[in-house]
Design goal:
11 strands, single chain, alpha/beta, 2 domains, 313 residues, Rossmann fold, four-stranded mixed β-sheet
Length: 313
Amino acid sequence: MPNKIDKDFNDLMGFLGGCNLEQTKAAVKRNLNFYKNTDKTNYTLTINYYNKYKLWGTIDPDNDNFELVDNIAEALVDHREDFQWLYGRLCDNRSKKILSNLLSYWFAPNYRKVSELQDKIFHQYFDLDLIQCKEDEVFVDIGAYIGDTAADFVKTFGSDSYKRIYCYEIVPENQNYIDKNIELLNLKNVINCRKGASDKSGIYSFISGETTSVSRLSESGERKIPTVAIDDDIEENVTFIKMDVEGSEEQALKGCRKKILENHPKLALSVYHSHKDLWKLARMIDELDPSYRFYLRYYGKELLPTEYILYAL
């Protein structure tokens, strides 16, 4: 039976269906201006965040820079049917509420739309209402940072809940911290692979972010790192794959194609680094194995949408 979540989502999709791209851009600009006039403090913080990380596009209305607005409008108009498809594939109302509020925020920013979504109960990537692990678990952590997610895995499921953990990380400084944390926390059977994960094996450049948690692979960059396809690098069966690689999730997912087809691993993927990842990664998984069930969870900031995770189970 339809509910308010369904109504809100369908109303937004219906409105967008009646607008062309230029009309949607104009509407997003009006909504941003309304946010500025009614909540200037949070508006300013939001704009500064977007311009700092530049993942979704920059914005500077005083100098007629509306790249962010253009990207949002194109995502909403060009991929409205993809978002409708994803909404229909989500398996609980919590996930549907998250998707509806995220898209509504893109169209008309208001921090209340995301602050009510926050999950403060479970560790990110490890929603115990969704994820169950056994002693033979083989967990692949793509974008391992300093080993914090591997540590959270053990905190959540216990030291006897896995067979092996593989950590893939592109930043050498972070790789060193992974070794230190493995020793400090006495983590057993955790392998620091000291390379990145992508769609194929080779040498890639990467661009360092303001912090080492936001470095990303690039066609050009000042530093080089070996990368591998997970299908080529791990011989044993894989049961659980997590990804947070600053916008390179699509390439990393392509490198897991064989594992997905043969092992049907649980997947927990960051889908907030671009406007397309939210629907495109789900489409890619569904094309490989339509038996996957999809969920969304939100672990991000209260101010604007970040850290939303697609679970495919």
